[in-house]
Amino acid sequence: MIVQGCHYIEEQKKKYLKHTLIWTAIVAVLFGSGLFLVGKRENYFTVIAGVLVLGIALNLSRYIGFRKFKDGKEVSAKILEGMKGSYDLFHSAIIPDAKGTAFFEHIVVTSRSMYFISESSEMIKKYRLCLENKLASKGIPMKSIHFVHVDNEVQIKNLAIKIEKDACYTNEKLGEYTKVINDLLM
Fold first, then answer.
1. What is the pLDDT of residues 63-99, one digit of tens each?
2. Residues in contact with 168: Cβ distance below 8 Å, sequence separation at least 6, in sequence order
3. Is 162 in contact with 134 (CB distance < 8 Å)?
């Protein structure tokens, strides 16, 4: 099952930019209405507009948070989506942490394992230990956590074959593992 679509980041950028513009328009209309109706800036409309600026700040900060990331390759996403078996799939996974923000093009969760797939070996090196510790503290065995660096479609296809073998087993761990990953994501 696809939990997070392959165009997730682009959709989030559009959503938060749209919400920022809507909130900005609302604040501007309120402030302008107060200025027009009362004739001076010191009025209740200005106070309400000032409070509503928080909506602008919230959506703008979310937009800025997503702006530096790009969705993974659609070809890779289609290969992983075409796998057989019981698994959950997260595309464009952003995992914030005090150390920084990890980005994985794909995360595949089966009832036996979690596969963190990235096109950047530096990303894996930098965040591997931190994520292993987080997941281990949530009761995930270390043998179930796999970090995979892929460069091309052939590697993705070979990985998909390996994951399909793992995905043929089904038990309640799939839901538990998916919830753990979902809680980590931004």
1. 999 999 998 888 999 999 899 989 999 999 999 888 7
2. 84, 85, 86
3. no
